[in-house]
Amino acid sequence: MYTAQPKKLLILQILDILRKHSDENHRLSQKEIADLLEKEYGVTAERKAVKRNLMDLIEYGYPIEYDEIKRSTANRVTGEMDDTSKLSGFYLAHDFSEGELRLLIDGVLSSRQLPHQQSQSLIKKLEGLASRYFSVRVRHVRTLPESVPRSQQVFLNIEILDEAISRNRQVEFFYNEYGLDKKLHPKLDKYNRPRRYVVNPFQMAAANGRYYLIGNDDFFSEVDHFRIERISDMHLLETARKPMQDVTGLEKGFSLPRHMAEHIYMFSGESGRVVFRAKRFLLNDVIDWFGTDITIKADGEENVIVTVASVNLQAMRKWALQYSLYTEILEPAGLREGVKEDIRMSAENYRMMLFSHPEKEKNS
User: Where are the beta strands (DSSP E) in 189-302?
Assistant: First the structure.
């Protein structure tokens, strides 16, 4: 096998040193680069060779920045002052800023579906996109504990779904749910056998720290949402995906921003206009959940009336319970009655607990 001579690798070794040891706040002189070459690769390089390779990298298009210091020196022959320049302060302008990398790392940390080991591996790769000084500052970062349930096949599922969506193909898989043993088990069909889902995939999306497949169960007509980490034994089928216009709710096409705004908890089912009263101090949360494409008007000093043009009604019912201390559904009437029934049943549960354990409740 052909083995390249060390000198032939000099330009790559210099690039690697810039990647690892330099950024805007940590610049390297030619001498420092030469010292690192000897320390890390056992390569001795003259300053002229370092400069020549740096200029070649810059000419090739690598984003290497440097300072040019002007100075005047006496010509040894004529004795006259010649203007010369010295290049120093070299650093590689990395593709991602440290703030951007930290945002990506936080995204990995907040993802509940990635296994602990894969999360750590991803973070390590992200750290490698910056200089070593960034890695020092994120050594304290840790993912959620390994006791949090996480799937080992998320990445494989994503790859298959990406191909299926690109090729307009269906997929087939088991969809799982947790049992008392804290393990995932396939959902069963009417014959009590593991059911294989045939699904028309349209989009993958992240919401509430989880990753979802937005698609359509081929047996039905409406949009469905599947947690990607709960999918197992997925296969790409050769059968064509159902046209989007044949799916209820997608007759006019698919808009991910609109879909995400309507499906705040990624529930399936009917969407509709909702009006609710909320405390003024809740406005930050309201806009966080529903965005700015809503109507807000004052209702006295402490309250506001909020109108959401279209939102999934099942998700809205859950949201209303979550914020029931500070909100009241006004329209539609069916949703209002549903929330009232949920609150009544919740109160009944606590009444039953009170009657079952009166002393415990009294002393708590």
Answer: 196-207, 210-217, 224-227, 231-240, 271-279, 295-299
